[in-house]
Amino acid sequence: MTIQCYKLAIIILDESELATIFENYINHLSNETLLILGSGSNIVFTGDFNGLILLMQNKGKKLLKQTDKAWYVSAKSGENWHEFVKNLAYIPGTVGAAPVQNIGAYGIEVEKYIDQIKIFDRFTQEFSSLSKEHCAFSYRDSIFKHQDRHRFIITEVIFKFPKQWQAILSYDELKKYLSKV
User: Fold this and answer.
1) Which is nearest to 117 in space by CA: 157, 171, 147?
2) How far apart are CA 100 and CA 58, in angstroms?
3) I need a surface site. Which of 12, 139, 153, 156 has the fewest CB within 10 A?
4) Which residues on neighbouring strands pair with residue 160, listed in sequence order?
5) Model confidence pLDDT, tens digit, residues 125-164
6) Contact, 114 vs 132, CB < 8 A?
7) Residues 93 and 81: beta-carbon distance below 8 Å
8) Whole-model pTM?
């Protein structure tokens, strides 16, 4: 059996093209016919998708600045998450998908390291930034899964990584293991 997963996909290599793409191709689509993906690692199609897939493949990462206590690092939304970080590694997906789900492992979530998120607003057709607080992070959740699911497209994430490494030992399984050592 052959399944045709999509009829049309637009691969975004440069987020600056989003405004033109939306103005010319996408604005007429309903929210249900537009699917925005990072790598698609958590998507399984069980039949045809009769809409447009926007695949965020914009790449780039750089050190923006550093202070005595932290490094501020920018990563485009299409960067592979596992290749970008070593802590919270082996979580499939992209940098842009990480805040949507507020990914985490072993007692730590990505929100701890997010400083701000750069977005494209589908409603205003403008680029802007959202503070960490605006994203309403909670366990495996954020505004990107609910009220602003169809509004914002994450184009870049600015992380604040502490210079002083600190082991996170609050995860129950780690506590049990360390109590035996």
Assistant:
1) 157
2) 17
3) 139
4) 72
5) 899 999 999 999 999 999 999 988 889 999 999 999 999 9
6) yes
7) yes
8) 0.86
Strands 114-121 and 126-131: antiparallel
Per residue in 83-115, pLDDT (tens digit) is 888 666 778 889 999 999 999 887 789 999 999
> Which DSSP letter does residue 40 get?
-
Beta-bridge mates of residue 117 = 130, 157
């979530």: which residue's tokens?
109
- Asked if pLDDT for residue 13 goes beyond 70, the answer is yes
DSSP state of 180: H
On the 0-12 / 13-18 / 19+ scale of CB atoms within 10 A, 12 is buried
Query: Quick check: helix, strand or coil at residue 65?
Result: strand
Q: How far apart are the first and last CA of the chain?
A: 53
Place of tokens 């805040």: 99
Rounded-to-integer distance, Cα 96 and Cα 161, Å: 17
DSSP string, 92-105: -SBTTTHHHHT-EE
Residue type, 73: V
The gap from C-alpha 101 to its chain's centroid, in whole angstroms, comes to 8
Tokens 């366990």 sit on residue: 139
